[in-house]
Amino acid sequence: xxxxxxxxxxxxxxxxxxxxxxxxxxxxxxxxxxxxxxxxxxxxxxxxxxxxxxxxxxxxxxxxxxxxxxxxxxxxxxxxxxxxxxxxxxxxxxxxxxxxxxxxxxxxxxxxxxxxxxxxxxxxxxxxxxxxxxxxxxxxxxxxxxxxxxxxxxxxxxxxxxxxxxxxxxxxxxxxxxxxxxxxxxxxxxxxxxxxxxxxxxxxxxxxxxxxxxxxxxxxxxxxxxxxxxxxxxxxxxxxxxxxxxxxxxxxxxxxxxxxxxxxxxxxxxxxxxxxxxxxxxxxxxxxxxxxxxxxxxxxxxxxxxxxxxxxxxxxxxxxxxxxxxxxxxxxxxxxxxxxxxxxxxxxxxxxxxxxxxxxxxxxxxxxxxxxxxxxxxxxxxxxxxxxxxxxxxxxxxxxxxxxxxxxxxxxxxxxxxxxxxxxxxxxxxxxxxxxxxxxxxxxxxxxxxxxxxxxxxxxxxxxxxxxxxxxxxxxxxxxxxxxxxxxxxxxxx
Length: 494
Ligand SMILES: [Zn+2]
Description:
Layout: E1 15-18, E2 23-27, H1 28-38, H2 50-60, H3 73-88, H4 97-114, H5 122-131, H6 138-148, H7 151-165, H8 167-173, E3 184-188, H9 211-216, H10 218-253, E4 261-265, E5 270-275, H11 276-283, H12 297-314, H13 327-338, H14 345-358, H15 362-367, H16 375-386, H17 391-396, H18 400-406, H19 409-418, H20 420-432, H21 436-454, H22 461-470, H23 477-493
Parallel strand pairs: 3-5
Antiparallel strand pairs: 1-2, 4-5
Helix pairs in contact: 2-3, 3-4, 3-16, 4-19, 6-10, 7-11, 12-13, 14-20, 14-21, 19-20, 21-23, 22-23
The structure holds zinc ion.
């Protein structure tokens, strides 16, 4: 795609229009003024080169005025501004390789941001959608979901939610009946494969006849055996049916797998989808006697957190243009409010490192904003800390599971260039080096965190170091754990 997006000098205009289509003008200067007033702490919004650079990108990509309207328009504008700022500060006359790559990065980012608001790249759009496995329309997905919805389980899980299943998360997020975003619960008659260890699979030991029972009353013993076998068969064939339907569900939706729970958003609907086996576990959580003996209360809490995580995704949201921008913020938000029991270790380590590098504490931010915050505001707040020029790197740094499963090649191209989570932290530290006050603050935060870790129960430092590094957290890990080990050693000699 990059070939088509090479820089070509275009006369800069500050007003973008499509007079031939009768579309009203978009006054880029006025748009940038609003940003500068809304976010005075982001100095770059007052930079004189910003508006001309935005105009140039808008023209080059033939971005329609609809880009500047409607839901998420502000968030899109913050992101476009961040790429435009990079564009403005790029030496376009120097053809050296690093400038070419920077240009490609900007082009990839603006394309991903604006592709639904331009007619200029229709062929490319089709190609990337197929690559990303999103060749079917959203409308089709919701129709398939409607067909796979299992009414009884859906009813029971909905009742469970009404009776307070999500109340803890709601109160932490500041959600009330008045500000809760509408969503639909759908229990689908499919299985994610790993969700079969709860209710319905267990025939407990005492339901099988013993040797004594066979001897004392063979008729009763055989009846007991038949009864238990019937239940076991029923649960096995229920499972088999689920597995079969899962295959056709995957085919019909064009997805590559199903999860225990997942959210689908279309224009007018937000669907919280839960696969049947998993729904049984969390909807019938009082049905203890039917559970596998190895399925503990803790397992149930851990399992329930999957549904809580997905519920968070139905309320507000910090990602823009699908999962392309800010997905790290969105997943961190979902995990945080759901109790941090699931994965996304790379995202968690990243925000931990971002706090050490900048002092920006995303978890405190979530706590102090309804639903964890509004996307354009948190983007701008991050820009005010790291600089508008590093915002594109932060917003496009995606969790590993997204890069390997869900994203097309553009996201991977971007990750190659920015170096993902580790690359961003590296550039923030590089920028901070020039200011001794910033360096001192970073050292102070690292020391405080090392003290905290030294008081924890961590003992296998080799494991912790390599574990963190395997998720891209490689800037602070050695410094931190060298210090933790030194603190522990000091204590032991006293
Ligand atoms: Zn999620």
